[in-house]
Amino acid sequence: MTEILLSAKNLSVRFGGVLAVNNVSFDVKQGEVFTLIGPNGAGKTTVFNLISRIYTPTMGEIDFAGPTGMLKLTTQPPQNVASLGIARTFQNIELFEHASVLHNLLIGRHTHRATGLWQDFFFTAKARDAELIAREKAEEVIEFLSLQHYRDTFVAGLPYGVRKVVELARALCTEPKLLLLDEPSSGLNVEETDDMAFWIQDIKNELGITVLMVEHDMSLVSKVSDRVLAMNQGEMLAMGTPREVQTDPGVIEAYLGSIDDVSSLRRTASGVSSAQEAA
Amino acid sequence: MRFIFKTDYAQDVNLAKHGGHVFWYSALMLLLLAAPWIFAEYWLAQLTLVLIYSIAGLGLMLLAGFTGLFSMGHAAFLGVGAYTHTVLTNMGVPFPFALACAASLSAAVGLLVGLPALRVKGIYLGIATLSFGFIVEEVLARWESVTGGNAGVHIKKPDIFGWVLSSGEQFYFLCLVITVVGTLGILNLLRSPTGRAFVAIRDSEISAQSMGIHLAYYKTLSFAISAAFAGVAGALYAHNLQFISPDQFNILQSIDLLLMIVIGGVGSVHGAFLGAIFLITMPQAIAMVKDYLPATLGQAPGLQGLVYGLVLIAFVLFEPMGLYGRWLKIRTYLQMFPFYRKGMFKRQKSFQKSDRLK
User: Fold this and answer.
1) Range of the structural domain that residue A104 is part of
2) CATH number for the domain that contains residue A42
3) Which site from A19, A184, A224, B43 is most exposed, i.e. has the minimal number of CB atoms within 10 Å?
4) What is the predicted ipTM?
5) Whether A22 and A134 share a structural domain
6) Do A79 and A210 fall within a single domain?
7) Average pLDDT over residues A72-96
8) What mean pLDDT, rounded, does chain A reach?
9) Cβ-Cβ contacts under 8 Å for B253 (sequence gap 6 or more)
10) What's the pTM?
């Protein structure tokens, strides 16, 4: 439980003049649900994109417990991230639209491919066996997330809520050690959000997959998270259990503003009125 | 209406999904095998040409329809294949080796052209491949010591280790065998991880990458396979005409190829064949109708271009899925009669996409 799966040290990334992530460090332990929260533009998704190697950090590094021990994630090419055992979902669903749900899940099995180009071209016995194995694994995930009904449906024709689940399923098909969920509940209704919370707990408890997620829905966050990191404007605000973070004065200030802001407003208002009186 | 009861995962892996597939494709195969005895010589030659264009179409379909990379210079690969094959055949190299060399050299050139595809996409890739097409055409015209320049070059009959295919029927069967092998190859690719990686790149590069798909590798691979198919088609094209010159592989040929897959139906293997049939039969149909049109229209030059243009516009507007899409609708209508609804094939608008990878 205490073994560290992913460790970010002094992460910073700068886009031109914008410091999107500033000196962020955190450890994700094996088997926990770790959540990033923060107002819009806090840099949560940027941290995700750093881990999945879409961006390269300007400073700092990320270590990941890969198959052969700790390795520096930041020097890996982007397409290797999945085979190391990191899968992700996207904030705005990024499914393969013109393909069936099953096809999408099979693409998730890509890192486990056992055949080369020529074996595929002639569809040798090995390619056939590999297909059947991939299918069985995909079916396990379909069963896990109750997607049987949609197996052969084209993604383009699916409702939003189901797409979210399909994306989760596709990520699970890669058999990851670490699952990155970018706002799993955005756009879902209350019932679907409850299902999502249930699944995230199952993913953690039954499949033993560590989850790192970005989420805004605080009821979902406090239901499933073991630890929470609050960010604002690229910087770390607070880290701890959901309750600790929720009661942290810095976090409350980031979301709601401080009492000083309000009282200063008040002063300005009285200042204006006194100015009017003077006139 | 056919209901398929699935009891085995192998049913989804098999190419023939049900008895209907087995029956109809067997029937088609028998018809193609019997074609030399059914059709007159002229129509057999047209059928041969359809097969040759289908091979090129399959390659372009893999690239444009399944990987989402449009090539506007595909005739160049056809040209590279045709000239490589011609030069080697005239040197006395047996047909299979010459064909393999033509395919390999085309694939190698395809790899080279695939490199800009890693950086540019959409219309920019179209321009890059277009200019590549011009370069190749120019090279074929100027490199006279090898290609014979604008005067063109004749090619000997195909020679398979001493067995010379001299008749139209023999050449037809040669094309048929290569087409069948090529089609099965493409279908196999599409039901295996390689083909799925192509489709993934077409639909969402960013999530393809996060699924562990090496974008650069699969994009260049798609270009190479596509070019190899065009190269093989080029070699057969050279044999078919027995004479090639650089102007056969110009921009018009590239546009014909692109037109073929768009009208056939982008994103379907059937589309390559339907498009090839369209491309070959259309000039015949125009020639037949010509005599009944008023002389000012019927005898006007560029009538074919006009018709092609109108057909293309009509397809893009009314049937973006091409002839194959239209066939799917007709089939569904017949299967579901009288329950077919007009909006059945309408898809809801896709949701907002996050940023693509550069």
Assistant:
1) 97-174
2) 3.40.50.300
3) B43
4) 0.86
5) no
6) yes
7) 91
8) 89
9) B75, B78
10) 0.89
To which residue do tokens 């010509």 refer? B290
A111-132 average pLDDT score:
93
User: Is A262 part of any domain?
Assistant: no
Find the domain containing B50 and state its range: 40-344
User: pLDDT by residue (tens digit) across B115-126?
Assistant: 887 888 788 999
Where among A124, A148, A174 does a domain terminate? Answer: A174
Q: List strands edge to edge, sheet with A18-29.
A: A18-29, A4-15, A59-66, A69-72
Cα A162 to the center of its chain, rounded Å: 18
Number of domains into which chain A is organized: 2
Same domain, A63 and A181: yes
Which amino acid type is present at position B33? L
What is the pLDDT at residue A1?
46
Q: Percentage of chain B surpassing pLDDT 90?
A: 61
- Please choose, from the candidates B111, B131, B110, the residue with its C-alpha nearest in 3D space to the C-alpha of residue B231: B110
B143-170 confidence digits (pLDDT tens): 988 888 888 899 988 888 888 888 889 9
A139 in B contact zone (CB under 8 Å): yes
Pair of tokens at residue A166? 């399909």
Same domain, A10 and A79: yes
Rounded distance between C-alpha atoms, residue B266 and residue B323, angstroms = 9
Q: Please say whether the beta carbons of A76 and A168 come within 8 A.
A: no
Q: B347: which chain A residues are within 8 Å (Cβ-Cβ)?
A: 154, 156-157
Residue A20 lies in a domain: yes
CB B111 within 8 A of CB B217: no
Residues on chain B touching A99 (C-beta within 8 angstroms): 199, 203
Is residue B255, in this structure, part of any structural domain at all? yes
